[in-house]
Amino acid sequence: MSSSIDSVNPWLVAVVLNTILLGLAWIVPKKLLTPAGLFHAWFLAILIWVTLGWQGYAVVMFYFLVGSGVTRIGMAQKEAEGIAEKRSGARGPENVWGSALTGALCALGVGIINSGFLVPNPQSLIPNTSAMLSTSPQSLLLLAYVASFSTKLADTTASEVGKAYGKSTFLITTLQPVPRGTEGAVSLEGTLAGIVASVAIAFVGWGVGLIDLLGVAWCVLAAFIATNVESVIGATLQFKYTWLTNEVVNILNTLIGAIASVLLAWTWITFIN
């Protein structure tokens, strides 16, 4: 039986809920988003609620809250060393879409499929997790959605924990010691923290029924692959091309994570069949 919240027009719920949250975020003294960032996050949150319901919303909110929290770890020390995020961690529009563009496109894809615009008589919005071991478009897009945020949270956590607590940081391409905050640098502390973060958000995706337990494994593996590829990009290419900004690299990072999760799932399904 559908819950009472599912029976209400999702656009109405999304607009009212996120307008209230936007108002609260506007008046709190510690800003997590810039004014422009608030508007873009409001639009993103509405899109996610309308296409994926509260389940998809729970994943993106978990990412935003935990990601904002880890950004503030050791902030005073990172600011003193000049390696802190700008604006004391407050996110602008470029940060919102750098982190969430891939996930938003996955959610939009699910919404289009479920609308029947491309496929007559589509399956339900959230597939039955007991039958998730399939290559249906919805299942793969939902996996990619969760994997994109698993990847971004792993990347954010690894970077911020590494900059705050990394005892030894190494350039991923040469394994030579480099200062904390160097593009392409990795640390044991940051890497472990990133894995824990990816596991946590993947389990949120499983808990709300977007993915199954195998999907959790694919998300964590994909996040690990993508964050290391992102570090290689940072170490070898980012300083060479001005268009490879942090936001563009973040989009590439989440896209790699989403694609990797789908390839892992597809390979596994093909293997067992």
How would you portray this structure in words?
α2 crosses α6 and α5 packs antiparallel against α6 (188-207). The chain has helices at residues 10-27, 35-71, 75-81, 93-114, 137-165, 188-207, 213-236, 246-272; strands at residues 169-171, 185-187. With 273 residues, the chain is mostly helical. The protein is built from 8 helices and 2 strands, in the order αααααββααα. The protein has a two-stranded antiparallel sheet with strand order 1-2. Residues 127-132 have low confidence and may be disordered. The radius of gyration is 19 Å and the shape is globular.
Write a compact overview of the structure shown.
The chain has 273 residues and is mainly α. Helices cover 67% and strands 2% of the residues.
